């Protein structure tokens, strides 16, 4: 059965409009008074699924912006302490589990602050080395015992599950943009991804390996954050970074370091295509520009493969 993403993970709701420094201050004072005197300020680069604030110099407060994202809080609290010691670079460490309060309806978290800047090409000394470091992280993540881990579902926006979840939405987007995209080629890339079914063992996946969730320090990968879409299943969703940040030599290095077969690569390409197609007309010009750029990378690779 096809599931539409808006049915499973609601967009931000009215609660998001009320998330500000004053709310965070009230929540911390009520539930964790030992931190009540610490300064609170928004982080420099905020998120969409969650709103994040500095709490003093060594912690962050992270509040879901909608009911669907609130499903991720308990998962991160449960599993990040299990995953962290087994991975080669730092990931968030939960320090406290907040409950609804002060007019805010969802659970929330306090994490240890991780220093670093979001990954951009100009901040990375050697993109190929960055790609292999990231691949090493993903290999280690996949190697963690997946027993009892959370299977793909609403909490992961169905990352880790079959691409067919988004078939109806993807084909609708292709039809919407048929006058601006090569429909036959794009449909072929999508169908190839659907046909490349996954039959491997369930392994851990991050679910949103994007430049905003990769931190860089001194030109190298320093941390991986935001495990809200993580779970256990097909890890092909973690390959999307190959077309959103990597290119050329670095893309080839990433694929080789992960040891990806053609079927995995096709499914990863499908995840990237789906994301690009649904954002082509986004009201945020930066997101729309990103989507057209990613689509261009996918089409260029397709031409090169022929």
Structure, briefly:
The protein is of the alpha+beta class and 306 residues long.
Structural class: alpha+beta
CATH topology type of the largest domain = Aminoglycoside 3'-phosphotransferase, Chain: A, domain 2
Characterize the biggest β-sheet.
Answer: 5 strands, antiparallel
Q: Using DSSP, what is the number of strands?
A: 10
Can you tell me the CATH class of the largest domain?
Answer: Alpha Beta
Strand % is 5-15%
Q: Percent helix among the residues?
A: 40-55%
Low-confidence stretches: 1-11
Mean pLDDT metric: 93
Number of structural units classed as domains:
2
The total count of helices amounts to 11
Strand order of the largest sheet: 1-2-3-5-4
* Oligomeric category: single chain
**CATH homologous superfamily caption of the largest domain:** Aminoglycoside phosphotransferase (APH), C-terminal lobe
Series of secondary-structure elements, N-terminal to C-terminal:
HHHEEEHEEEHHHEEEEHHHH
C-alpha geometry: globular
Rg (CA only): 19 Å
